[in-house]
Amino acid sequence: MVVSVNRKDADSIIKALEAGVVPKRGVQYLLVGRRHEVEEVIQTLEDVSQGSSDLRIWVGDFGSGKSFMLQTIQNLAQQKNFVSSTVDLTPNRRLYATDGSAVALYTEIMDKLVTKSAQNGNVLNTIVEEWIMQIIQDLSNKYHLSQADIMDDKYSSEIENIILDTFAKFQSVALSFEFGQAIIQYYRGLIHKDRQQMLQAIRWLRGDIRTMTESKQALGINRIIRDDNWYDAIKTMSELFIGIGYSGFVVNLDEAVNIYKLSNSVSRERNYERILNIYNECKADVARALFVNLGATRKTVYNNVRGMASYGALQGRLGLEERMDSDLLNTNRTTLPLKPLTNEEIYTLLSNLIQIYQVNYKSNVSLTEAEIVQYMEIQLNRPGADEFLTPRAVIKDFIELLDLMRQNPTITVSDALQDKFGSVAAPVQKDAANTDDDQIEVF
C-alpha cells in the first residue's frame, strides 16, 4: 500500500514514535487492524451528533493500543465537527476528589480542547468569541446594520437575552445560568475592549476561579465550578457546543489505571461511583451530545479487589472478563477489548513506517519483505519477548534500525541488525502473511 503523507505529518509521526508516544498528527497512516472499531466509532459519533450520548471503555494491557485508539477517536471527531479533548488521569487529576483534583481534571479538559479548525488546544476563548460574533452577525443581517453598529451598547440587552435563552433550553441546568452569566461578561468585555474582564470570564469557564469571593468580585457570579459539580459543567459545555453549531463534545480520559493505583479504598470507590454516574447518564441520554471514552487496563476494569469490578453497582455493567478473549466480533459493547495485531498487520504497519520515514528524511532507505520479516522474528524470538516485548519497543527499535541504515549508507540490513541485536539469523524468504510466529501488539 502506498502511503501519501505530507512532510509535516511525517515529521510529527517519526518524532512521536521515536519518543514512544502517540503522534497527534497523521495517526490515520498507522491505522491497521482496527477497521471494525473505527466503523463503530464513526457510527457512535453520528448518533451523538443527533443529541444522544455514549460511553466506551477501551480495555487492554500496557501497549495494547488504548492511547492510539483515543487519539484516533479525537481525529475522527475533529473531522466530523466535534469539539474534543484527550487528557490523562493522574494522581492529581481524578474523577472524584475533595482537594481540587477533580476540578483540576476539568481544567485540563478545557485546556486541551481542539476543533477541526483549531487543533493546538486552549481554544475555549475562540469558541466563545466565535459564537458571540455569530450572534452579532445574525443581528447585523436582521437589522441591515454593520457589525460595528450592533456592538453598540444599545443592542446589548438583546444579545444578552439571546445568550441566556440559549442556556435556558439546556437539559443540564445545574450550572447553565452561571455559564450564561460568564459568557455575558465575556461579551461585555469584548465590546468595551476590556481584556481583563474577558480573561476573568474565561477563567471562570475553565474552572480556574476557585473561590466564590473571587467569582463575585470579578464577575458577579455566585457559584463556581468545583470538585463536586465539574461533571455538570462538562454536560453544560457539551450542550453549549451543540447549541452553537458543533456536532457535540468528545472527552477521552486515558490512564484510568491511576484510579486503580489509588491506595485509599474509599477514594477509589468514589471515583468508580463517578464512572457509574457518567455511565448511567451517557447510556440514558441524560447528557446531550457527549461521548466519553476511557482507556483502562484489564486489571483496572475487572480486578475484584481494586478495579472497577470491586464496585458492585458498576460490576454488572462491565460484562464478563472472559468475553474479552472471545474470537467473535462485537464492537457494540461498552467495554471493548483491543485485540493484538496479527503478524500480517504488523508487517503492513512496518511497511507504512518505512514510507513515512522516507518522506520525513527524504531518504531512499528501505527494507525488503524478507528483511522486515527477519526483523519481526528477531524481536519475537528475543528472551522474555512474550512477557516484556512491547509494541512501542518494536516500533522504536525499527525506527532506530532505519536511522542506522540512513546514516551509514554502506552497511546492509544484516549489518544494522547485527549491530543492534548481536547475532542474528539470515532473512527467511517467506511471505509475512504466512508466518506462524507469536502475535505481538501495536500501540
Task: Quickly describe the structure.
This protein is an alpha/beta fold and 443 residues long. Helix content is 53%, strand content 6%.
Write the layout of secondary structure elements.
Blueprint: H1 7-19, H2 35-49, E1 54-59, H3 66-79, E2 83-88, H4 101-111, H5 124-143, H6 147-150, H7 156-168, H8 176-191, H9 195-206, H10 212-219, H11 230-243, E3 249-254, H12 257-260, H13 265-283, E4 290-296, H14 298-302, H15 312-315, E5 335-337, H16 343-361, H17 369-380, H18 385-388, H19 391-407, H20 413-421
Parallel strand pairs: 1-4, 1-5, 2-3, 3-4
What report would you give on this structure?
- By secondary structure, the chain is of the alpha/beta class.
- It has 3 domains: 1-33 and 341-443, no CATH class; 34-115 and 246-337, Rossmann fold, CATH 3.40.50; 124-219, no CATH class.
- 53% of the residues lie in helices and 6% in strands.
- It contains 20 helices and 5 strands.
- Strands 2-3-4-1-5 form a 5-stranded parallel beta sheet, sandwiched between helices.
- Helix 1 crosses helix 16 (343-361) and helix 7 runs antiparallel to helix 8.
- The longest helix has 20 residues, at 124-143.
- Residues 428-443 have low confidence and may be disordered.
Key features?
disordered C terminus, single chain, five-stranded parallel β-sheet, 20 helices, alpha/beta
As for the CATH topology of the largest domain, it is Rossmann fold
Which secondary-structure class do the elements indicate?
alpha/beta
Distance separating the two termini? 20 Å
- Given as residue ranges, the uncertain stretches (5+ residues, pLDDT < 50) are 428-443
Shape: globular
Average pLDDT taken over every residue: 90
> Tally the helices: what do you get?
20
How many domains?
3
